[in-house]
Amino acid sequence: MFPPLTLKTVRWRPLEGEGLEHLTVRAIDGGIRVESAVIGEREPSIPYGVHYRVDLDAAWHVRSFLVEVTTGQRIAMTSDGQGHWRSEDGTPLPAFDGCIDIDLAGSPFTNTLPIRRLNLAKGEKSPLLTMVYVPFDTFEPFPDGQFYTCLAADARYLFEEEDGTFTAELPVDADGFVTDYPTLFARL
Q1: pLDDT tens-digit readout, 137-174
Q2: Which residues does residue 181 pair with via DSSP β-bridges, in sequence order?
Q3: Is 67 exposed, middle or buried (0-12, 13-18, 19+ CB in 10 A)?
Q4: 143-164: string of b/e by CB count within 10 Å (b at 16+)?
Q5: Which SUPFAM superfamilies match (predicted)?
Q6: How is the chain split into domains, by residue range?
Q7: Residues 6 or more apart from 97 whose CB is under 8 A from it?
Q8: For residue 186, with 0-12 CB atoms within 10 Å meaning exposed, 13-18 middle and 19 or more buried, which class applies?
Q9: What pTM, to 2 d.p., does this model score?
Q10: Do 130 and 98 form a contact (C-beta atoms < 8 A)?
Q11: Does residue 44 have a cis peptide bond before it, meaning omega lies within 30 degrees of 0?
């Protein structure tokens, strides 16, 4: 079982191209706030800068998120923590019903959300998890199915896309944060 967090800062770099993510997690008002700055490149070598904030309840359910590009493009959504989402202006977003977690392209942090929230035992596989996936190129979110399997309690997890197109073994630190994301990211 992962310990409660009060403050943690981590950094990752992409394994291809240039970039860096600097992320801080801190306890606030009975919940958790995550803030990060990401600089990187989209194919073919188009630089970008992104700031994001994710607010979680104490059980690691996403309650809101905001992603902004330095050029001004942004997306913000809120959740009741039970899989019902609204846009920034309060419009219901039924296409994301059932999504508890988010997956932000360009960041290994969002793997921590289901890993910490589910607290799987060794050998246990999650049910199908549908994420609000936000690509950093279009900022047009869509539902994305994923599975997590605990390979070593609080230490290593298997990530699988629902359609089988991508899998990765993810080692994590004592707090559930990815330390190495094969082919994508390395922790600094």
Answers
A1: 888 999 999 999 999 999 999 999 999 999 999 999 99
A2: 185
A3: buried
A4: ebebbbbbeeebebbebbeeee
A5: PA1994-like (SSF159275)
A6: 7-187
A7: 83, 84, 85
A8: middle
A9: 0.95
A10: yes
A11: yes
CA atoms of 22 and 11, how far apart (whole Å): 5
Structure confidence at residue 179 as a pLDDT band (50, 70, 90): very high
Q: Confirm if 9 and 24 have CB atoms less than 8 A apart.
A: yes
Sign of CA dihedral 172, 15, 73, 70: positive
Residue that is written with structure tokens 């958790």 in the block? 32
Radius of gyration of the chain (CA): 16
Element containing residue 144 per DSSP (H, E) = strand 142-152
Roughly how many angstroms between the first and final C-alpha of the chain, as a whole number? 24
